[in-house]
Amino acid sequence: MKKMKRLFISLLMLMVSTWAAWSQGTAEMSFEKNTHNFGAFSESSPKVTCKFKFKNTGESPLVIHQAIASCGCTVPVYPKEPIRPGEEGEITVTYNGAGKFPGHFRKSITLRTNAKNEVVRLFIEGDMMPKED
Predict the structure, then answer these.
(1) Which residues make beta-bridge pairs with 49?
(2) pTM here?
């Protein structure tokens, strides 16, 4: 009888915890834009920065686990604390073209999150013009 009671309690706890996890919903990340074009800028001022604004349009807190740039010349800064449903946040991306050849560039930033779409890619691009002598 004790074994049946333990089994019943274990099954009940499993069902309750499964229901609680299922009813929480998921986070969703909605961006105003996912690409930023810096346009043309001079090699003499090679550092440019932009911000990607987003909103958690889901039903549970949004957590950004990682933001990985496609190269070392691009540095993303992202919120480390959870973004509650309905709240907004931003990701700041800085491109530093110092020591790079002038011309067109296109870089990606890969976000890993707990959102419905776990992986999101943002893009920056622009044209670094040669210094004028």
Answers:
(1) 94
(2) 0.79
- The answer to whether 91 and 109 are in contact (CB under 8 A) is yes
Alpha carbon separation from 114 to 29, 39, 51, 77, 91 (Å, rounded): 10, 33, 21, 18, 16
Q: 5-28 as b/e, with b when 16 or more CB fall inside 10 Å?
A: eeeeeeeeeeeeeeeeeeeeeebb
**Do 94 and 49 form a contact (C-beta atoms < 8 A)?**
yes
Residue 133 tokens read as 């002598």
**116: its two tokens:** 């419905």
Dist. CA 133–CA 124, nearest whole Å: 28
The pLDDT tens digits for 47-75 are: 999 999 999 999 999 999 999 999 999 99
- Residue closest to 49 by CA, chosen among 31, 32, 36: 36
Query: Which DSSP helix (H) or strand (E) runs through 10?
Result: helix 2-23
